[in-house]
Specification:
Number of strands: 14
CATH superfamily of the largest domain: f41 fragment of flagellin, N-terminal domain
Distance between the termini: 31 Å
CATH class of the largest domain: Mainly Alpha
Helix content: 40-55%
Number of domains: 2
Structural class: alpha+beta
Radius of gyration: 41 Å
Strand order of the largest sheet: 6-13-8-9-10
Strand content: 15-25%
Number of helices: 8
Order of helices and strands: HHHEEEEHEEEEEEEEEEHHHH
CATH topology of the largest domain: f41 fragment of flagellin, N-terminal domain
Amino acid sequence: MSERISTSMLYSQSIASLQSKQARLSHLQQQLATGQKLLTAKDDPVAAGAAVGLDRALAELERFGANADTVLNRLGLQENALEQAGNALARISELTVQANSAGASAADRKTIAAEIVSLRATLLDLANSSDGAGRYLFGGTADGSAPFASAAGGVAYSGDQTQRQVEIAPQLFVSDALPGSELFLRVRTGDGRIDAAAGSGNTGTGVLARSQLSDAAAWDGGRYRVVFEADATYRVENAAGETVAAGDYVSGEAIAFAGLQLVVQGEPAEGDAFTIGPAGTRDVFATIDGLVAALNSQPTSDAERAAQQNALQAALRDIGTAQGHFVDARASGGAQLALIDTAEALRGAQTLTLESTLSGMRDLDMVEAYSRFTLEKTALEAAQLSFMQMQQLLLFKLIR
């Protein structure tokens, strides 16, 4: 059996070999030009697939970084707003002390009230602070419009009570700005744990000087009422109206019962009462409104002056607690800012690791690639020379 070797077959084989070498050389040229060894997925299907996954991970880290930048801006603005709100309350507290001094006249208190009204307006503006991107800081997730607005009898809140949790690194979340309902509306009264107040119908000159929780273990968490009798005595009633303690009243001396202490100065009239119990919540604007009303009142009797003083004292306690409330909120925001810094370091470490892995998959070894390019170029030139020599081996040339 014999095989026939034709000129056309040799020609076709040579052309195919040249084309193959040219394709390899062209591929190497593209790799050298781009510095990448994975030009298409067919170069290394497994590595290309892994690289796509790493690209997605890097894109996700970049998105986490953008989230962190947004929250960082909002928390920074919250810090500034709360600092200014705290300053406003500090000024209101200072003015209240001035108004409650013996030397303050009715005209002085009216002037102080006017300044406090201005500070209240400032506080309302701070509660409606924007993040600079068209969203409001203290509206919760309903932050498309101003959350606070003046309404009949006080301030209305149109935001919600949700605090966003934003992912700033894989499985690491940070809390966004606090909703305004928690910052400005649900503010503890009294000292934050207990609160005491003079009865609205009191007719004597008794003034609440101090109230405190003296023994937490002895207090049952209930609310009590101290009622004064005609013969300079008092009785203490629980929520059910049952008498749980009694004694002689001495102005300025502590009335102690059930782990609580109450100090009243002046001369309470028969039937006057003071209540003490767990602190409730009140919005800071209502506290300021009550203070302004007390400052603008015109007492004409000792009983009315005592009522005004009780109102000023209560407002002073509530404003002090509100100041502490804002300090706590700032501390909470500071903790979130620290977490953002931690997340930034974590993202940086993960990004470096992913980029190093991608570099190993994609980046070209220039020295090795140039060596292969030189070999392929030499092989192509040799093949071209061989092809040219083969074209001269024709039978007709031998006949001549």
